Amino acid sequence: MFDMSKWQQLAREHIHDRPAGQGRLAGKIAVVTGAAQGFGKGIAEALHAEGAVVVIADLNLPGARAVAAALGARAHAVAVDVTDEESVANMVRRTVELCGGLDLLVSNAGVAKAGSLMQLEKQTFDFVTGINYTGYFLCAKYAAAIMQAQHDADPEAFFDIVEINSKSGLEGSKNNFAYAGSKFGGIGLTQSFALELCPYNIKVNAICPGNYLDGPLWSDPERGLFVQYLNAGKVPGARTVEDVRRHYMSKVPMNRGCFPQDVARAILYCVEQLYETGQAIPVTGGQVMLG
C-alpha cells in the first residue's frame, strides 16, 4: 500500500471543517469515478445538486474538467486509472488536498465487452475484470484508509462506499459473462468490505441499476452495447440495433430505461440510512426483483 499517513493526518485535522451548504448532502465530500460521461456524470450532477462537494474522477481528464467546470463551485476534476494502484492512491490524496477529506466514494467506473465463451479473448476478459472488479477493490482500499482516519477523529461520523454494480450482478447475462462475472464479484467484495469496515462507521453498499439505454455505454454507434449485442447474437432474431433496443425495453415493467437520477436516489438512501450495510439494491424498474 502506498503511504497515506500525511493525507490521513490532514483528513483528521479537517474532519469538522466541512463546507456549509444546502441539500441532503450538504457538507459531504464525494468522489465519483468514471464521471466524465454516462451514469457517472449524471450521478455527480445529482450529488452536487444536493449540496455535496464532488470530485469528478476519470481517465479522461479533459472530460472530467469540462463536467467540473459546468458544475462550478464545489466541483473538482482529478485524473484516475482505476486499474492502477498508484493512480488510485493519488486520486484519494488529491481529493484530501483539494477538499480536506472524503465522506462518500461512488465507485462507478466500469466497462462492458460482450462475447460468447468461445469468442471472447482473455485480454478482453482481463480488461473488463481489471476495471469493474480490481478497480473497485483499489478505490475502496484507499478511500477506506482516509475514512478510518476520520473515524479516529470523530467516532460519531458515518462514511459511505457505494459500488455502482448492475442487474447483471444479480442474474447471469448470456454472451456477457465477463461483465456479469465482474459484477457478481463486486457484490462479494461489497459484503466483505461491509463486514470489515463496519467498526469504523463505514457503510458499504452496491446499487444494481437496470439498463441506461440512452447513455453512451448502450447507444454509442460504434462501441455501444446495442451494437455489441447485435454482433454477438445476444438477442435471437434481431437484425438491427433498434430490434435490440425494443427487446430490452420490453423486459422492463416500468417501460423505460434506468436514468442517473434513479441511481442517485438510491445513493441518497445509502447515505441517509444509518442502519444498513452490505446490501445490493436493485434499481431496475421491476426487471429484477429480489425474493
Number of DSSP helical runs: 10
Overall structural domain count: 2
The low-pLDDT segments are none
Mean of residue pLDDT values: 95
CATH first level of the largest domain: Alpha Beta
Give the CATH architecture of the largest domain.
3-Layer(aba) Sandwich
From the 3D structure, determine the CATH topology of the largest domain.
Answer: Rossmann fold
The CATH homologous superfamily of the largest domain is named NAD(P)-binding Rossmann-like Domain
Strand content: 5-15%
Sketch the topology as an H/E string, one letter per element.
HEHEHEHEHEHEHHHHE
Give the structural class.
alpha/beta
The helix fraction, in percent, is 40-55%
**Overall shape:** globular
Radius of gyration: 19 Å
Summary keywords:
single chain; 291 residues; alpha/beta; Rossmann fold; 2 domains; seven-stranded parallel beta sheet; 46% helix
Short description:
By secondary structure, the chain is an alpha/beta fold.
Descriptive account of the structure:
- 46% of the residues lie in helices and 13% in strands.
- It is built from ten helices and seven strands.
- The model has no long low-confidence stretch (mean pLDDT 95).
- The protein has a seven-stranded parallel sheet, with helices on both faces.
- It is globular.
- Helix 4 (85-99) runs parallel beside helix 5 (122-153) and helix 5 (122-153) packs parallel to helix 6 (177-197).
